């Protein structure tokens, strides 16, 4: 996945500062993509230089609010519609779950329980986000998708921990 396109997508939702974008990554994309401030700000500068975003407001201490330009919307649409996604993934959790069968039963249970606690915390965060989100928000369906995926994963982890 491209950081550039993730930022364009978040800015398509609403104009934002780099700090706000970081919060949106943490709140809505954290299971798919993590971006640090040190990655977001240089990418915003490149996007601005390329004419895909523009500064629409300046705040205290030099903060800048960025918005998508027409060229930015065109690029985001092109990436979403025309580019074939890279479906390969690096998912450490999935590799650990795959290799977990090599452990003795007590250690497997410990790992499954730890992962279940993580999924339950992620579910709580998504429920909180859904509660605060306007139901007409374009990304509300993705919150529901995350909740459904977590429900299936939590059920599977409980079953494995009880085996």
UniProtKB/TrEMBL annotation:
Pfam families the UniProt entry points to: PadR (PF03551)
Domain Transcription regulator PadR N-terminal: 7-77
Alphabetical list of PANTHER family matching this protein: TRANSCRIPTIONAL REGULATOR YQJI, TRANSCRIPTIONAL REGULATORY PROTEIN
Descriptive protein name: Transcription regulator PadR N-terminal domain-containing protein
